[in-house]
Design brief:
Pfam families: DNase_NucA_NucB (PF14040)
Protein name: Deoxyribonuclease NucA/NucB domain-containing protein
Largest sheet: 9 strands, antiparallel
Number of domains: 2
Radius of gyration: 26 Å
Organism: Streptomyces smaragdinus
InterPro entries: DNase_NucA_NucB (IPR029476)
Number of helices: 8
Distance between the termini: 54 Å
Helix content: 10-25%
Number of strands: 24
Shape: elongated
Length: 448
């Protein structure tokens, strides 16, 4: 018995044109094979090696309503950013929406956002007769089903909930002879559960495997769930960050005629932390696990009149940095980072604390350029503007390591209301995508 997987879209296409062959299936690793602990460098390297499996988790600010705050800063509604704080026996509406997307059917699944991932895959077993030494000698047939799976993160604890539902009527019995197709294959068993890769001191999966005959799986239209937990005590560093791969493992029944190893699906990355600086409208979110196989990026739209001038400024700074203020001094040439290109290109922005040392330095250098103070005198600083109605906007943002203190930045006068709206939406995004300090790059996309 060999555990196998295949993209359901490939299975259906091959079955429809009559070319389905047992060699089309991928024989998966044994679930007993565990990987080395997943470090940040290796987690990022895995994403870089498989860019097709990396999705684009983004915050589209044009869809976020703003409301006036007492400080004068326009802030998003609390409901627009709150992460999951509890799990249900069924996935979130976002997960159901995710499963309706075409990308969910492809290898790697779809990261709908950092809190929600989904996939539709076909899993099963190839059954073989074996000789006295246990070596497969004669292929008998393949049983498989379509599994809708999802993972929902948490904004209040270091865990995710994984879900699986066997698609009703999806069980297939391929290549069996007529007798065994009806009287052997349906009575064989499969069990399944989720698990965490790596050593048990770093993470663990909870819950027991669920086992049914293949004929029973064909009529099960219920969500099953298991939880994966990350262990804070195994982490070091300010935010106690750990990276994990998790997967589904599946096997056959103990009393079945056919025997074989327990298999494991592809694995998917999560990142868990205990960062205590996430708070929104008085509610703290001091621990979390998010889906990590994404390219997080913030979107401003020129067509959004709440932030139009800021969006135009950022676009110009990204596309034509040498023509921005402050004017380049001497041999310096600006090359402003942060533009979203669809890949993790090493030019993302990294977050720093508001009112911290880097933030304050960024503010100081921005003000020098805006007020035409040294080293940006009249010839290099921003031309005079109406300070009664406009703010001096900077990019990259003051809340990043790449801000004005890097001396590689742009400033422009923009309407005060738009600058404050853009600032409120930036705060919303950093919270909504749980962008950590210093080590969690994000990008900025300007759309029409």
């Amino acid at each position: 018995m060999k555990p196998v997987v295949m993209d359901d879209a490939e299975y259906r296409a091959n079955k429809a044109d009559g070319t389905l062959d047992r060699s089309d299936w991928t024989v998966v690793d044994s679930a007993s094979v565990k990987s080395e602990p997943l470090t940040e460098d290796r987690a990022n390297a895995e994403l870089a090696e498989a860019p097709g499996a990396v999705d684009k988790s983004y915050g589209d600010t044009s869809a976020v309503p703003l409301r006036s705050a007492s400080s004068g800063v326009r802030a998003p509604s609390p409901r627009m950013a709150a992460p999951p704080t509890s799990w249900s026996t069924t996935p979130t509406p976002d997960a159901e929406t995710c499963l309706g997307r075409d990308r969910a059917n492809q290898s790697g699944g779809l990261t709908f956002n950092r809190w929600t991932w989904c996939h539709r895959m076909r899993i099963g077993f190839q059954y073989w007769e074996v000789d006295g030494r246990g070596i497969p000698v004669e292929y008998e047939g393949t049983n498989s089903l379509v599994a809708d799976v999802a993972a929902v993160g948490s904004g209040v604890e270091r865990g995710i909930r994984t879900y699986l539902r066997a698609e009703e009527g999806s069980v297939s019995y391929d290549d069996w002879d007529v007798f065994d197709r009806w009287f052997t294959a349906p009575d064989l068993h499969m069990y399944i559960l989720s698990d965490c890769d790596g050593t048990p001191d770093r993470c663990h999966g909870s819950g027991s495997g669920v086992e049914h005959t293949w004929s029973d799986w064909d009529y099960r239209d219920e969500w099953l769930y298991w939880d994966i937990y990350s262990h804070e005590d195994a982490a070091t560093g300010a935010d106690r960050v750990l990276y994990h791969n998790w997967f589904f493992r599946f096997g056959g029944g103990d009393d079945d005629e056919y025997k074989g190893p327990e298999g494991r699906t592809d694995s998917w990355q999560i990142r868990c932390d205990s960062a205590n600086y996430f708070s929104y409208f008085g509610v703290d979110y001091a621990k979390a696990c998010v889906n990590y196989n994404v390219i997080p990026h913030l979107i401003y739209k020129v067509s959004d009149d709440r932030v139009e001038a800021v969006a135009r400024h950022i676009r110009f700074a990204q596309d034509d940095p040498t023509r921005t203020y402050p004017v380049e001094i001497g041999e310096e040439r600006k090359d402003i980072p942060g533009k979203y290109t669809g890949v993790r290109d090493g030019r993302g922005l990294t977050r720093v604390p508001y009112q911290g040392i880097v933030y304050s330095a960024n503010e100081d250098w921005k003000n020098r350029a805006c007020q035409r103070r040294e080293p940006y005198g009249d010839a290099w600083g921003l031309p005079p503007y109406d300070t009664g109605t406009h703010d001096c906007d900077e990019y990259p943002f003051a809340v990043t390591n790449e801000g004005a203190a890097s001396r590689n930045f742009s400033v422009r006068a923009v309407p005060r209301e738009q600058n404050r709206a853009a600032g409120g939406l930036l705060r919303w995004y950093l919270f909504a995508d749980r962008i950590l300090y210093n080590s969690d790059p994000f990008w900025v996309e300007i759309q029409d």
